[in-house]
Amino acid sequence: MNIAILSRGETLYSTQSLLKAGEALNHSIEVIDPTYCNVFIEDDKALLQYHDKLIDDLDAIIPRIGASNTYYGTSLVRHFEAMEVFSIVSSEGIRISRDKWASFQIMAKAGVPLPKTTLVSQYYAEDFLRDFGQGPVIIKLLEGTHGTGVILCESYKNALATLETLRSTRSRFLLQEYIEESKGADLRVIVVGGSIVASMRRQAKEGDFRSNLHRGGSSEAIKLSEAEKNAALRAAKSLNLGVCGVDILQSKRGPLVLEVNSTPGLEGVENTTGIDVSKHIIEYLERHKR
């Protein structure tokens, strides 16, 4: 197959891991920087030029679209789809997964277990906040990623002050219950082609509640319970994502899906579990193209 990885960082671990896996399985695989893609429509056909070359021989793409480039990135994936090039994650899947509230609405419809979450109205923020009681509460900016834009407010008073600041900047945000028993840990589950291929437990560093590894957290390979497996698979299916990372909190009432990432980093999970996730992704492409 002719495969392209859509990435602005050719030297990044995830990009290099996918390149090596593709080459090891005897595919022609390259990195395309979305910055240098020119998409256009001519004679009723979707066409794409990379630098000065027309691209018309690809079988599949692997999008590695950063959160800061969501609009153009999803447009580029949609263009490849119009050219009948298979993508491991659809343009719509990327778009929805990047919208925290929209993804929660879709997962709720599919019966995915979720923490209590509220989209905050600019006019009734205080009323919504009272519904979460006087204890800790999480505030999430809709555009945040990798743990940024996530605020733990220790009390109602602290949360109210934060809400007033966010309202003054016209930011869009969610209120979410704080799962105290998770103790700053979550599960990262990698789903590829409807199957779980790797999972790890991530623990936040001391003094933080965000378990992201690049923020100094630690990790260990774990074996999932049946309930955790079911939650991860149902979340991936509901958002129609062929490849994704599902983040799960362990609560007193069972696993709760916190977020679904359509472009999960591979370094942490591959190094922690010893599993070649990139190989699973390439094999998923192979199965789809048979």
TrEMBL record:
UniProt-listed GO biological process terms: SOS response; translation
InterPro entries (alphabetical): ATP-grasp, ATP-grasp_RimK-type, ATP_grasp_subdomain_1, Rimk_N, Rp_bS6_RimK/Lys_biosynth_LsyX
Pfam families assigned: RimK (PF08443), Rimk_N (PF18030)
Cofactor dependency: Mn(2+); Mg(2+)
GO cellular component terms, semicolon-separated: cytoplasm
Bilayer-crossing regions: none
Sorted UniProt keywords: ATP-binding, Ligase, Magnesium, Manganese, Metal-binding, Nucleotide-binding, Protein biosynthesis
Gene3D superfamilies reported in the protein's UniProt record: 3.40.50.20, ATP-grasp fold, A domain, ATP-grasp fold, B domain
An annotated Gene Ontology molecular function: metal ion binding
Residue ranges constituting the ATP-grasp domain according to the UniProt record: 104-286
NCBIfam families xref list: rimK_fam (TIGR00768)
Protein name: Alpha-L-glutamate ligase
